[in-house]
Amino acid sequence: MAKVNVSLPQGTRDFGAEVVRKRTYIFSTIKSVFELYGFEPLETPAMENLDTLMGKYGEEGDKLIFKILNNGLDNPDKQQKIKEDFEKVLAGKNSSGITERALKYDLTIPFARYVAMNHNQLTMPFKRYQVQPVWRADRPQKGRYREFYQCDADVVGSKSLLNEIELSNIYATVFNKLGVSVEIKINSRKILAALAEICGGADKMVDITIAIDKLDKIGIEKVKEELAQRGLNVAQISIIENYLNITGSNEEKLAAIKQLIGGNETGAKGIEEIETVYRQSAINNLQFDFTLARGLNYYTGVIFEVKANNVQMGSIGGGGRYDDLTGLFGVPNIPGVGISFGVDRIYDVMEELKLFPAGVHTGTKVLFFNLGDAESKKAFALMQELRSKGIAAELYHENSKFDKQFKYAEKKQIPFIVIIGTKELETNTCNIKELATGLQETVSFDEMLKKFTA
């Protein structure tokens, strides 16, 4: 029989039990904090209509949307029309004859679509959280996948900066609970808009933010080259370079940004907003970062990004205010703000820094050895009693040698084994062995149940 090559698509992964348990620990921690702050769960479909997604993520983001081919492209009756539509696609245009749907790129745009469709039934302000996979046609590398989970929390129907203050505290609380040391970066699109106005007008906003958003990847000189290619002159590029070179403490950065763009009305408003969030949130690791751009077109105010300390990794969280988002779907005047957690990168950080608690690894707590028909029947009854008390337990599936059953327990990292042989069955006792220490004791059945359920 010919060998069958089995593989996964690039940028995707399988998750075994140990990884799933660790990821569940992250999900549960984040969800518990979302619930603590009054957010409600929501789920949306894996796919959206293509026109729902296109044009919402900037020119770079639109290139990364996974489009789904329509059914029926092999229909011979439509061959000529299909060829014409494919020519449009090859020319870089979209064609509804080839693709009308796409996998969702993030959770924010589908959420805005949901709000636009259901705003008359929602209690405002509406606070929702969402934990689902998203897909991006990106080049796979460390910390960057084509399929990955996002955990989002958003508030719509309120312009209050209290929301930004709470969201920054959600970030701080979650990462404190996970034991991950982070820097929470904050900026404002209004500050970036002011920079654009000073450098030639609001129409330069997209060009500037796209270039700035690449600063960490390509460096300041390449950013300057890209700005020049996008039509900015030497004087304008010099202003942007001065802007990008603002450093120091938060107080020093505030003073510098006020001097540079504080005379601009939009800039002054943006500075006021980030200063309010900074002072009222009272988070030690909240830092002003004016190089932060968040290259998504829908942001309008305060923006966030989270970076892990002590590890080489991209952002593990980000978000911001998007007051015009539902207007894209014909429902104007519903302000919103939200944040996202990059669970896959958070997992990689915690794994690299060995931050997962020991208990996260364990599923089954007790393994009953199988030493015969009568012995296994009693073991099964005791196992069911433990399970009824919430203790995860297993009975080995067949009467096998001790060595085989021990190895099963070791490979599954089951901490305790219970042995009931002929002698123990006659005396209503069992032997309990803790694998980590090798300690073994003989106790009654009742004492065994009490030991594991205490």
What key phrases describe this protein's structure?
single chain; 454 residues; BirA Bifunctional Protein, domain 2; Rossmann fold; 2 domains; 8-stranded mixed sheet; 5-stranded mixed sheet; 43% helix; globular
Task: Describe the SSE topology.
Elements: H1 17-36, E1 40-41, E2 47-49, H2 50-53, H3 58-62, E3 67-69, H4 79-90, E4 99-103, H5 108-118, E5 126-135, E6 147-156, H6 162-178, E7 182-188, H7 189-198, H8 205-212, H9 215-229, H10 234-244, H11 250-261, H12 265-281, E8 286-288, E9 302-308, E10 317-321, E11 336-342, H13 343-352, E12 366-368, H14 373-388, E13 393-395, H15 402-411, E14 416-419, H16 422-427, E15 429-434, E16 440-444, H17 445-453
Parallel strand pairs: 1-5, 7-8, 12-13, 12-14
Antiparallel strand pairs: 2-4, 3-4, 5-6, 6-11, 7-9, 9-10, 10-11, 14-15, 15-16
Helix pairs in contact: 1-6, 1-13, 6-12, 7-12, 8-9, 9-10, 11-12
GO molecular function: ATP binding; histidine-tRNA ligase activity
Domain Aminoacyl-transfer RNA synthetases class-II family profile: 1-346
Subunit structure: Homodimer.
